[in-house]
Amino acid sequence: MPFRKNTPKPVQTPVKKPETEEGDEDESKKSSKGAPELLRGFRDIMPEEQGRWNFVRDAMRSLAESYTFDRIDLPILERSDLFLRTLGKGTDVVEKEMYVFTDPSNRSVALRPEATASAARAYIEHGMIERPQPVKLWYEGPMFRHDRPQAGRFRQFYQVGFEVFGSSEPIIDAQLILIGKKIFETLGLDVSVQINSIGTPECRQAYLAELVSYFRQFRSRLPEDDKRRLQKNPLRLLDSKEPETIELLKDAPQILDWLDEKSKEHFMKVLEFLDEVEMPYVLNSHLVRGLDYYTHTVFEFTLADDEGEKAQNALGGGGRYDGLVELIGGRPTPACGFALGIDRIVRALSDKNIDPPQYKKAHVFFAQLGDAARRVGLKLFEEFRKSGIIVSEAVGKNALKAQLEVANKLGVQFTLILGQKEVLDGTIIIRDMESGAQETIDVKKIVSVVERKLQKDPGVKTEGYSPVADS
Ligand code: AMP
């Protein structure tokens, strides 16, 4: 595989021990006694939240398929070198946020902080350059960054990513932006697209020299973090959140003025394509994105009514990364992609009270009395499942009252009641939960009776199974 042959010696970038945040120090003490607790920045996504999560994931999956992206599942653990080499030395992710450790084979490994580098590795490793280009891949899954936990910022979070390898055409950049926007539209979220170009590494170099000399004059006014950026990764000064730096940025040189002709032409074409499809965007000359591998177009999606807080709350972002595949040992392969943060999207849906469709709710509850009824119930349950009707139950409860309480809570339309008498008679009671009317039915006919009753209600869809009603 070209990846192995051409891979340069691992870069010995020293990985600093992640800084301990306030609150982290107590963790070891906390966990030694009592009930185990979650690590800071980690969380459980509870059953009642799954409705929204599935809604988001289903929308992504369906759009990925309709734009003919092929799914790829990438490992969560990779050689740490893959990220150290690609994301950039002075970047926050590499400097402070990577979960790096030595595995039992004495290899330095990392929990992936993002998956574009992994997708590029897979592209090389599986010789995807031999496939018809461009190769369009999508993925979803957890990412890990030892960042300071705060609203919308977790140490384990979930992304969906779309990557296109093997085309340098500006229409690809435009189409990816369009797909991102469509995803948000499908979910009912109004987002604004921020866009910029950071050109090629060459023209960026010349621009950086200018930027550094501009900021050096004001070095003493810069906050400590930005002094560090000035030295290590001056491009990041452009998206600084520090008021003093933001003030200085007003007169700072603009990257767009330093783009070479080819970069300018590429960017103009991307914008023309977006104009063509009447997609609004905001030119943001301070948008650079956090990672080193980007070239040319960079973009971000933010909630349309959330302009002020900018990148802090971006729901997603991406850009072109024409040098990445070559950087990790592949043949030169232009590429472009974006990733969306599911956690933040789900939160936005919940803030805006956008409810997922409730089609995976049980419509029938099965209540039983006694062991014989339980046995019949087990078989019945399978028959209902085969015909696509979702049946919920509470077999752990004995009293009919307690079972009916559960049925009420779930908001089902019908409850089936099976007691000892019904088992002996070969019947079952069906209760309409709204009217309270009850009928006794031949147990052999119950599946078709329920089917008929549910079909009368056009709002009812019966596929899928969700043990918990969405709240
Ligand atoms: P990035 O890979 O940094 O460009 O992030 C892409 C998207 O992933 C962001 O716009 C966020 O929606 C999401 N994201 C990044 N970092 C985090 C985090 N620590 N917690 C939650 N979501 C995140």
Distance, first to last CA: 50 Å
**What class, by secondary structure content?**
alpha+beta
Helical coverage, percent range: 25-40%
Q: Beta-strand percentage?
A: 15-25%
Task: Summarize the main sheet.
Answer: 8 strands, mixed
Bound molecules: adenosine monophosphate
In the predicted model, the low-confidence regions spanning at least 5 consecutive residues are 1-18, 458-471
Total domain units: 2
**Helical element count?**
17
Number of strands: 16
CATH class of the largest domain: Alpha Beta
Query: What's the name of the CATH homologous superfamily of the largest domain?
Result: Bira Bifunctional Protein, Domain 2
Query: Residue-averaged pLDDT, rounded?
Result: 87
Instruction: Could you tell me the CATH topology label of the largest domain.
Output: BirA Bifunctional Protein, domain 2
Adjacency order of strands in the biggest sheet: 1-5-6-11-10-9-7-8
What is the overall shape?
elongated
